[in-house]
Design a protein that fits this description.
single chain; about 270 residues; alpha+beta; Methyltransferase, Cobalt-precorrin-4 Transmethylase, Domain 2; 4-stranded mixed beta sheet; 10 helices; 10 strands
């Protein structure tokens, strides 16, 4: 294949990568790149690596490293940052199977409203945080989606100040909040380091406040989330809510997922 004349399938892949990362097996990647099956494997590997670098496509793990689940995650290095007007359009669509709003990541707003004497640390709620992580877990298993933090159920941008106030005085910064979210994903999800590759977190300025936009890519491998105490669970999206998949529902859910989520994938 000539890298200057990509196949139609590769052009489609690049277009899809412009909005969201994509999963491919090594054989699928070789196929979409149009590499000759009769060439030596290492030759095809080198060509694939060169083409991806030339097209500014990042791949995780490296092509030389075999992923445990057989899936490589491809991401466009220069992804387009959404404009404020584009974010407004998203917020106007309200919550759905692929979109969720959370007023805060870990601050308990109800407790702050009713207990004015509550300390900053008392306002830091594991239940509130787990709710946000559940939404991420649901998107991972059910087609992907976007989680907004700092936005109420009506799509109104509230900002991140309640969450930022919980950080230490000299660390009240959006980047620190983002790092805390990534750390929680690493610690609370099974194979959390890999799960972080499927989440893109972006700070967005809107209506003079800052909110977070978490773009979550669908994952073929089942992803399990554990609460602060207890066993890991499997979650899914159902309309505009996230629910746990019970053991007696697992077989039916896997059949539904194979037909409605994985069938449309690579």
């Amino acid at each position: 294949m000539n890298a200057g004349y990509p196949s139609a399938a590769f052009a489609e892949l690049l277009m899809a990568l412009g909005s969201r990362p994509q999963e491919r097996t090594l054989d699928q990647l070789f196929d979409v790149l149009g590499l000759d099956e009769e060439e030596y494997f290492l030759t095809r590997l080198a060509k694939a690596d060169r083409i991806l670098r030339e097209c500014k496509v990042e791949i995780q793990p490296r092509l030389q490293d075999k992923p445990p689940d057989g899936m490589f995650l491809l991401r466009q290095i220069d992804m387009v940052v959404l404009s404020e007007s584009a974010v407004r359009e998203q917020l106007a669509r309200h919550e759905s199977s692929s979109q969720e709003f959370k007023s805060t990541y870990w601050c308990d707003l109800q407790r702050r409203q009713h207990q004015s004497c509550a300390t900053v640390q008392q306002l830091r709620s594991e239940a509130v945080k787990h709710s946000a992580l559940k939404s991420i877990a649901g998107f991972l298993t059910t087609g992907g989606g976007t989680l907004f933090i700092g936005v109420n159920d009506s799509g109104e941008a509230l900002g991140l100040q309640p969450d930022l106030s919980i950080l230490q005085d000299n660390r009240r910064h959006v980047d620190q909040l983002i790092n805390n979210i990534k750390t929680d994903v690493t610690q609370r999800f099974r194979d959390g380091n890999t799960v972080n590759d499927y989440i893109r977190i972006e700070a967005v300025e809107i209506d003079d406040v800052t909110i977070l936009r978490l773009d979550v890519t669908s994952r073929r491998k089942l992803t399990f989330l554990a609460p602060a105490k207890g066993d890991a669970q499997l979650f899914r999206r159902q309309d505009n809510r996230t629910i746990s998949v019970q053991i007696y529902e697992l077989e039916e859910f896997l059949e539904w997922r194979s037909e409605h989520i994985l069938a449309g994938g690579p």
